[in-house]
Amino acid sequence: MKKDLYNFAIRMGDTSWILSHRLCELCSFGPFLEEDLAMTNVGLDHIGQAEEWLNYACELSDEDVDADFLAYRRKEKEYRNVQLVEYPNDDFAYVITRQFYLDVYNYLLYTKLTQSKDATFAAIAQKSLKEVKYHLRHSSNWMVRLGDGTEESHERVQNAVDDLWFYTGDLFVMPESEQNLAKEGIIPNLADLEADWEKMVLEVFEKAGINKPSYEVLASGSFDGQHTEYLGFMLCEMQYLPNKYQDAKW
Amino acid sequence: MSTDNQGPLWEVFIQTKPGAPFKHAGAVHAYDQEMAIENARDTYTRRHEGTSMWVVKSEDIVAVAPEEADAFFDPSDDKIYRHPTFYEIPEGVKHL
Fold it and tell me: In what order do the strands lie in the sheet with B22-29?
């Protein structure tokens, strides 16, 4: 059970952590000043969430590790983040769509987690939910603005929606660890979130004039340490300093 | 990226606590009302600065033109009887 709690804390922490890095890459590259601030604000919120989850993971770990170790010193296969957040910032429409897919998911998941039988899970969820609600508002508004905007913005956001759809199946997979926790009432059944997720996503698509992608999604492996080809490059950059200077302190 | 595609300018007013007056905080660019209030939030209220906020399109604000300032404000200079400076303020009266 402790291992299962650890696995889920890592999954949540890593997802926020990897996404925060993608958002921080945008710092000073936003389409304009105000949006630059907005995206990096969301990134900072995710760093905060990652810190809480990874700190709790350390408490649950049998090894003597701290959150910095988990963030900076693990190998690629030991990360359990969802694959969606690894996708690069190809285009502002991809940044927003990636965020939107995850915000809807986080909104549903954190809402359920506030009822968790694990007090720490519930507390982290309670705190994060306020932030997530704002993230969702921000990304939903942009989906509509881009989808219902100019011909070019519509085309770009539709491309992003189609390309990133592929990675959304991964959000709802229930590996053994997660099944154990769901049985104990510690986390919701992730597969059950899918119908609500799709409903919320499609409501925004409709307002935005975006078409639902017509292909089946990939449902595999992030919980197992399977990642897209992008994560390795991200970790090279994120872990550069701890790898080069083993004794570096903040 | 050119600088003229950031949308119109909006003025931001923040209330620091319930009941307090809204004070001008600055301006943001945005394409619509939703975006204006979100940009204002992200630009000006990230460190607990506010409990409420207004945004208004800069072009909707009616302002005194600098060249009209004399006609608007100078006439009050020589009429000190317009100021309540001749009254004794009772003790205990605050915010006056």
Answer: B22-29, B9-15, B52-57
* Cβ <8 Å between B6 and A32: yes
Please give the domain boundaries of chain A with CATH numbers for all domains.
2-244 (1.20.1260.10)
Q: How far is CA A192 from CA A72, A111, A182, A187, A188, in A?
A: 33, 13, 11, 11, 8
Q: What is the DSSP letter of A213?
A: P
Domain B9-86 top-level CATH class: alpha beta
Contact A157, A147 (CB under 8 A): yes
Provide the 3-class DSSP secondary structure of residue B9: strand
Cβ-based contacts of A38 with chain B (< 8 Å): 38-39, 42
Q: Mean pLDDT across chain A, nearest whole number?
A: 94
Every domain of chain B and the residues it spans: 9-86
Ramachandran class of B92: left when φ > 0, alpha when ψ lies in -120 to 50, beta otherwise? left
Nearest to A109 by CA among A87, A136, A149, A86: A136
Substitution target from B5, B12, B38, B43 for chain A, most A beta carbons within 10 A: B38
| Nearest CB to B34; choose among A31, A32, A141 | A141
Whether A230 shows a pLDDT value over 50: the answer reads yes
Residue A72 has pLDDT above 60, yes or no: yes
pLDDT tens figures, A99-113: 999 999 999 999 999
b/e map A22-37, b = 16+ CB within 10 Å:
bbebbeeebebebbbb
A177 with A12: CB under 8 angstroms?
Answer: no
Containing A7, the helix (H) or strand (E) segment is helix A2-24
Instruction: Tally Cβ neighbours within 10 Å of residue B60.
Output: 9
Look at phi and psi of residue B32 and say left if phi exceeds 0, alpha if psi is from -120 to 50, else beta.
beta
